[in-house]
Amino acid sequence: MNTKTLLVLSLAGVVSAQAGLADNHLDRLSPKAREFVEKYKAEKANKKINAQKRKVVLKSDILGRKSKKGQFRDSTVYMVEDEIEPKMEVTVTDLKVDNIDIEPISAFYSFNGDSKEEKFWLNGKTIDRKSFFKKTEDWEKRRAKKRKPLKKSYKAFLTPTEIEKKLKSSDAIYIESEELQVEPNYLTVTDYTRGYGYYTANYVTRDEALEISQLNFAHADGYKGNDVGVYYLEQGCARVSEIPDPSKHSTPGCSGTSDHATGVTGVLQLFAPNVNVYGYDYTVLNSHDGPADPSSFSPKIYIGTTSLGFYYNGQYRNNYEVIDAQYDNYVYETSVTEFVNAGNLKSESLQPEPTIHSPGKAANVITVGAVNPLPSTTPEGPAYFYLPYSNYINSNIGNTKPDIMNLTNFTDPIFPDAYGDIFNGTSASTPYSAAMGAVLMSKHPFFKGHPEMVKPVFLTSTLGNLIEDRDSDGGAVPGVPAFNLMASNKSFSGYWNRANYTSLFKDANGNNKTQNVLIDGLVAGEKYKLAVTWLMKGNTIKSLGKLPIKMEAHLFQNGTEFTSKSSYEYSSASMQEIREPYILHSFTVPASGKIILKLACTQNDAPDDQMIMGFHMSRVP
What we know:
Elements lengths: L1 E7 L3 H6 L5 H4 L4 H15 L5 E8 L17 E8 L4 E7 L10 E7 L6 E5 L2 E3 L1 H18 L7 E5 L1 H10 L3 E4 L3 E3 L6 H5 L12 H8 L1 H6 L8 E6 L14 E5 L5 H13 L4 E6 H4 L15 E6 L3 E3 L9 H13 L2 E5 L24 E13 L2 E6 L6 E2 L5 E2 L2 E4 L2 E2 L10 E2 L1 H19 L7 H9 L23 H5 L3 E9 L1 H5 L9 E8 L4 E9 L2 H7 L4 E9 L2 E7 L1 E4 L4 E4 L2 E7 L4 E12 L6 E10 L1
Parallel strand pairs: 1-3, 11-13, 11-14, 12-13, 14-16, 16-17, 17-21
Antiparallel strand pairs: 2-3, 4-8, 4-9, 5-6, 5-24, 6-7, 10-15, 17-18, 19-20, 22-23, 24-33, 25-32, 26-31, 26-33, 27-28, 27-32, 29-30
Helix pairs in contact: 3-5, 9-12, 11-16
């Protein structure tokens, strides 16, 4: 009997045909997963792999013939060495989002806060209010039916070879091994003053906050978040015995309760008491999953709020992470407006410099920082102190965050005893902003299901400047949104949804063209804020490492351009191009009458992605 040794490598043919992972594949691995794969490849190249021996007896000759007795005298016994390939627990995420096969839609809306007159346009034609909402609701139903569900992340134990195979199966797959952890979510006064001895907490009651934000006027008129569903993503869900209205709270995705979720729900119900709140538990989902079909709820879910900040294995990174891309995909695909906290920590061992937490770096969400009102006032309204952990930061994709600031430090007996009847930090300012969004939608249902519209409304509706500007670029930091500017003022809005980029910004000859909007009824000397936003696929941003779109807004009157603004500029402070997912501009109307808003797309690195774009123009004092 002959005994020989044979080295057998698992999937040897596959591996030998592939010299190694291409750089773009490595870029879709998290740092530890990449180290794991590269270490294995190096050991394999140096023949330092581990193997286990086993005996294999061949009972046929080279032609496959067997003896009648089932064994040849000269049968050969091989000692086979199988490679022992290591495994690592990883999270696999497929970020691919398909375009939806549906006809595009465009709509415009004007509201005169003085006369309360509303006007609607659908696909370029005037239309009455009832018909407008009937037709747009029918379109939304068709879109929801044609939309493919977003793919869920999942955990698996994979070998380096299996990781390579996964990455090669799709350029939208990302693999991470780091554990996604949640930041400490509650700040004491000591936390506030750590490193900032000048700050003393100024607590705000419900009535004070309603007056500061002007939500009290909306509540008096009966707008309290009626017919709006809001979901939250938390660690655990609210304790129904400690929230204002248990009848308007349900938990379709929870396994337990927490003080933090109870505080978030308390803020939502204090400031938008008629919303229906749906609780989702991050510890159950283990990724951003949210409601798979927000339109299936009654009332429909139009808003999401996340007061969690995530980091990886004790490390804060300024990267645009997979979870940021998941949030961007979710907003792009479901049309849910997402409010996400900027995070709280600064000058900690985990975070020596201010860093916006993931998913707050997502481009399509409204990232919320925190401010505290001061007794002093400005001619425009209350003055605010900019809480230092909410510093504006440029991410590695070039956009600055947070998008808006809002009140925090709420005090009310409804908040958990563990927090001393206080709820604060960006954990509080974020659901407070979501509550304002719900009240906005209850008064103006035009904004339901249109995050590309809601962000411009918030961007254009701030009053007052903060007492201390801590922006590293020296730019002005806005005050908190004022609801009367959001919903009770003279304004003009519009959106383009699921349009082809070429049809919007290219003519028949392939030359650039603009989208033009005629705005009438303006008065000389009126001041306006204009904001334009567009949604982008998370996978597109993640794969490019930057925002793919550059936009410009040009304003004309009587054939002459009188002002313009772009979404990009070079920052001398950060030594990089700042590329925002929006345009924000202030201007004064030169003469009474009409103006034309011309929107130009000067760069689009993802021309095959469907365009979802909106604008809002609001008169300001």
